[in-house]
Structures are given as C-alpha cells and as structure tokens.
UniProtKB/TrEMBL annotation:
<keyword id="KW-0804">Transcription</keyword>
<keyword id="KW-0902">Two-component regulatory system</keyword>
<keyword id="KW-0238">DNA-binding</keyword>
<feature type="coiled-coil region">
    <location>
        <begin position="152"/>
        <end position="207"/>
    </location>
</feature>
<dbReference type="InterPro" id="IPR001789">
    <property type="entry name" value="Sig_transdc_resp-reg_receiver"/>
</dbReference>
<keyword id="KW-0597">Phosphoprotein</keyword>
<dbReference type="InterPro" id="IPR039420">
    <property type="entry name" value="WalR-like"/>
</dbReference>
<feature type="domain" description="Response regulatory">
    <location>
        <begin position="30"/>
        <end position="146"/>
    </location>
</feature>
<feature type="modified residue" description="4-aspartylphosphate">
    <location>
        <position position="79"/>
    </location>
</feature>
<dbReference type="Pfam" id="PF00072">
    <property type="entry name" value="Response_reg"/>
</dbReference>
<protein>
    <submittedName>
        <fullName>Response regulator</fullName>
    </submittedName>
</protein>
<keyword id="KW-0175">Coiled coil</keyword>
<dbReference type="InterPro" id="IPR011006">
    <property type="entry name" value="CheY-like_superfamily"/>
</dbReference>
<keyword id="KW-0805">Transcription regulation</keyword>
Amino acid sequence: MIQPYFQLRYHVKEQWWGIRPVQSADSQGTILLVDDTLENLDVLDELLSEQGYEVRRAINGSMALRAVEADPPDLILLDIMMPEMDGYQVCEQIKKNEATWDIPIIFISALSDVFDKVKAFQVGGVDYLSKPFQAEEVLARVKTHLNNAYLQKELQMQKERWQQRDEEEQQRSVSLKLQRDLERKRAEQYLERIMVLEDRLRELGLDPEQP
C-alpha cells in the first residue's frame, strides 16, 4: 500500500536493481532499500543520497537476498509487508548467512499495518521505522546503527589482532623452547663424547687431566 510521506520532492532515478554503484571516497556508507512500492524507494533514496550515503534498491525479498549475497551493504532498510516473501523472512535468511549476519536491519512498517515488534527483534532486526516517515528520525536511526555496526566491527578486529598477537607469542615461546632443548641436547652429546674420550685415554694408561 502507498502511504503518506514526509514532504520531500522526489524523482525517479535510472538504476540497476541490486547493483551497487561505485562508492565514492567521501561516502557515509552503503544502504540497501527493500520495498515493493517505488514511491517509498524514491523518497528514502533522495533523503539518504543527499546525506552522502550510497543507496541501492530492491523491490522484493528475493532480489534483496541476491543483492546482499553479491555485495553486502552496511545497513538495510527493510519493508515488512511485501508479496511472496515478507520482511521477517528476508531478515531470517540474511541472519542465517555467516557472511551477512552482522548487517544491521531496520524494519519499515506503516502505522496501519499489523506489526509484531517482538518478532522483528527475534528474527534479528535492530530497530524499526513507522510510516509516515520523519526525516530527522530516519537519519538519526540510520546514523546510530551504522556507528554501532562500525564500532562492533572495530572491536572484533581488535580482538582478532590480540588473538593473532597471542598466537604469535605462543609460537615464539614454543620455538624458543625447542631451540633451548636442541642446544641442551647438543651440549649433553658433547659432554658424552668427552667422557668417552677420557675413558679411552685411561685404558691406554694416560691421564686425561694432563695437557
């Protein structure tokens, strides 16, 4: 259903569905919009593009899943009420994929729709927006969850660096122990040879202590 929206002039853009445009150096992040109503896509696209976000579109659930698998976005705005595959099902599929489970998903729902907020969070959504949209609210929630996702990734990367550092330190410790064990074994073998030579000298009636 087409719902009323905040006052924003919109225009139809020529765009390949599900294909990510080349991201500019000053991009604020990539956002995938999933909605079967083109007017919704146009309004959100213009609002987010003007703030420096790279915007991609999908008009149904299956197209959204293909787009996410081909090139995961930084955040997804996902409509709930769609034909064939609703937003809950799309979210569940994304969260089952190890490569995409951490993408923040914000659900979109009209105030007149039956919206199960508990289910939205259970399937993996991080937030929701109600139609008609408020521009400030959309931008604030998008920015908040992008920042949260960035911080979580940074934390995970830091943990991985610490783990790698610990593993390297353990490897160095093992290598050092092996080297010391080898040096000790060589020293023991050297002493054994000296003792054998001293025994032979004594058998010959010679004093091994004499120079």
